Amino acid sequence: MGKKLKAAILGFGGMGHVHAAAYAGQKDVELVACCDIDPAQFERKNVELNFGSSGNSDAKVLKKYLCYEDMVREEAGNLDFVDIALPSDLHCEYAIRAMEDGFNVLCEKPMALTSRDAKKMIAASKRTGKLLMIAQCLRFNETFLAVKKVCDSGKYGKLLRLCAHRVSKQPGGWFRDVARSGGALMDLHLHDIDFIQFMLGVPDELVCFGVPVSSGGIDDSVTTYIYRNGPVVTAEGSWARCGWSCGMTVIFEKATLEMKGDDLFLYDHKTGKTGPLKYRKPKHNHYFNEIAAFAAGVKKGVTPPSATPESTCESIRLIETELKSALAGGKRVKL
Ligand SMILES: NC(=O)c1ccc[n+]([C@@H]2O[C@H](COP(=O)([O-])OP(=O)(O)OC[C@H]3O[C@@H](n4cnc5c(N)ncnc54)[C@H](O)[C@@H]3O)[C@@H](O)[C@H]2O)c1
After folding, report:
1. Using an 8 Å Cβ cutoff, are 152 and 158 in contact?
2. Cis bond leading into 231, ω under 30°?
3. Which CATH class is domain 139-284+316-334?
4. Which of 55, 138, 158, 226 could be bridged to 21 by S-S, CB 3.0 to 4.6 A?
5. CB neighbours (10 Å) of residue 274?
6. Contact, 47 vs 76, CB < 8 A?
7. Which of 27-41, 44-58, 259-273 has the lowest mean pLDDT?
8. Closest among 288, 256, 32, 245 to 135, alpha carbons compared
């Protein structure tokens, strides 16, 4: 098994706490430090996010820093990676700084607010030789991966249509400023297009209709992705709903697969029967899995192939294209 790697969380708010809880039980890495400009964050055992509780973590056992520079001064040479859970507009700047300061970087999504910045992060990773992985968590979600496995198997015939949705109320604070969060399109809906392109590749064209709600950006949208000779794919994302809901429905020639939470149901078109699809139920949540995958990658010296920075950068480009389409009133745009 070898020595455990050491990691620190930069940005100890909602997702910082989610990540901290997900270090418990990791075999390749231990969390040793956390950094946040707001010391009140260190006192919180758990935090409520739009999708639920962060789970418990205890900052008492961690070294605590109130600014990144102090953490670098103390921890250079000690940390194997920095786990960034800062507001989205800071991802590019701090990911590049951390790589230049000698750390591998696991960074929350969105990779950056523009593909231009995402490319700068890739260039910094190449220049410094440090690994960079973006925590696009659905790529590590065993329920979503089970859907991908069914699609790849071809067992139920050709994939005809896929629809995904991810909706909630709008989070508060900096999320309400499009310049910091990118709005629901970049912040929330990104999860689904990232998984769709991970599963089916980049579409040929897309059409997006969206409306602003309160961030100043597109906070409620529906997009159709056009795959020439492929399935009809739609995804809906919103920060203008009464509560949290997400899921995916996949219609094949012979059956329909529906996701409800961690459960998958199959509807057989011929027999009319519906029943649960058996798959290996998640032992850990996707946050645990993405940290485990990155730690294993750092040990081997390679970014996990299922979440290369080049591929997560493509998702940012897709969101930019959706924005372009929505701002043009639902114009069909080529990728
Ligand atoms: N993968 C997911 O499911 C998921 C869910 C929610 C949020 N996110 C992403 O996680 C990131 C963080 O979101 P959040 O909900 O935790 O936000 P948050 O506001 O709760 O936490 C951000 C923290 O960063 C701290 N911070 C700000 N500037 C700092 C600096 N210069 N140095 C150190 N600390 C600083 C803030 O004080 C705050 O505690 C965002 O990019 C968001 O899109 C991902």
Report:
1. no
2. no
3. alpha beta
4. 55
5. 12
6. no
7. 44-58
8. 288
How many whole angstroms separate alpha carbon 164 and alpha carbon 314? 19
Q: How many CB atoms lie within 10 A of CB 88?
A: 22
Quote the pTM value.
Answer: 0.97
Give me the pLDDT at residue 1, please.
Answer: 59
Interatomic CA distance for residues 205 and 29, integer angstroms: 41
Over residues 116-133, the pLDDT tens digits come to: 999 999 999 999 999 999
Residue whose entry in the numeric block shows the structure tokens 């745009």: 333
Closest atom of ligand 1 relative to the 16 alpha carbon:
16
* pLDDT (0 to 100) of residue 2: 74
Q: Which of 36, 41, 72, 219 to mutate to test the pocket of ligand 1 (most atoms within 8 A of CB)?
A: 36
CATH superfamily of 5-136+286-306: NAD(P)-binding Rossmann-like Domain (3.40.50.720)
Return the domain boundaries, the chain. 5-136+286-306, 139-284+316-334
Mean pLDDT of 90-114: 98
Ligand 1 cavity residues, CB under 6 Å = 10-16, 35-38, 41, 49, 68, 85-88, 90, 108-109, 135, 137, 173, 187
Which of 10, 17, 37 most suits a substitution to test ligand 1, by most atoms within 8 Å of the C-beta? 37
Which secondary structure element, helix H or strand E, spans residue 292, and what is its range?
Answer: helix 286-300
Angle at 40 between CA 36 and CA 42, to 5 degrees: 60
Average pLDDT, the chain: 96
How far is Cα 309 from Cα 306, in angstroms, rounded to an integer? 10
pLDDT in tens, 145-171: 999 999 999 999 999 999 999 999 999
Please give the Cα distance from 290 to 282 (Å, whole number): 13
Average of pLDDT values for 210-235? 95
Half-sphere exposure of 17 (CA within 13 A, CB side): 20
